[in-house]
Amino acid sequence: MRPDVCRHLVASALLLCCSPALALSIAFSPASPSAGEAVGAILTQPFNCAVMPPRLKEAAAGSITFESLVPDGVVHCPFIPDPPPTVSVHSVDLGALSPGTYAATWNVYLYESSGVQTLLESTTASLVVAPGGGGPAPVNPIPALSAWTLFAMGGLCAGIGLRRLRRVRLLHRSAGAA
Which of 2, 13, 23, 128 holds its CA 20 to 30 A away from the CA of 62? Predict the structure, then answer.
């Protein structure tokens, strides 16, 4: 066999074996949220600088849909790190979700200049939001200073200011006498 053919066969075999490891994936942070808790989706895909970051297309009761577009034609990537990463990781904030089971779908479309979108890849994941305590966790208030502490700090600032004013006046008097 010719060396080029062998090289292509080996590269094709590696690509076919490794492609399941480099598929689209959806994960959630936190993995098991409660109602009222802010949830984020972590979307991972094989590195392709031409793919636009995923966006939240639809969030209805029990369904969440993300969408990414791959433009057709020649695409000039603004920045390709060296060495290029194997995957791209994107985060999308979903906010606080109500209790229930959500089916998340991520669709990657080829966007042609004519405006036609062709589905290239799709993946799904499930998210279960447990009932929570009826809302977000309480926030601990910042402790305020007592009235006496504020009074003492104000007096300290006034004393420093008066001392500075006295020095400036003494400097002006000595400069005027000379």
Answer: 23
Which candidate, 13, 19, 39, 9, places its Cα nearest to that of 27?
39
DSSP string covering 76-114: --S---SSPPSEEEEEEEEEE--SEEEEEEEEEEEE-TT
Q: Is residue 38 pLDDT above 80, yes or no? A: yes
pLDDT of residue 67: 92
Q: Which residue has the higher pLDDT, 170 or 74?
A: 170
Stretch among 33-37, 68-72, 140-144 having the lowest mean pLDDT: 140-144
CA distance to 54, 76, 98, per residue, from 51 (Å): 9, 11, 31
pLDDT of residue 21: 46
Residue 58 sits in which domain range? 24-75+88-129
Element spanning 163, H or E: helix 147-177
Indicate whether 38 belongs to any domain.
yes
- Three-state SS for 105? strand
Domain assignment of residue 160, yes or no: no
How many folded domains does the chain comprise?
1
Q: Flag whether 147 is in a domain.
A: no
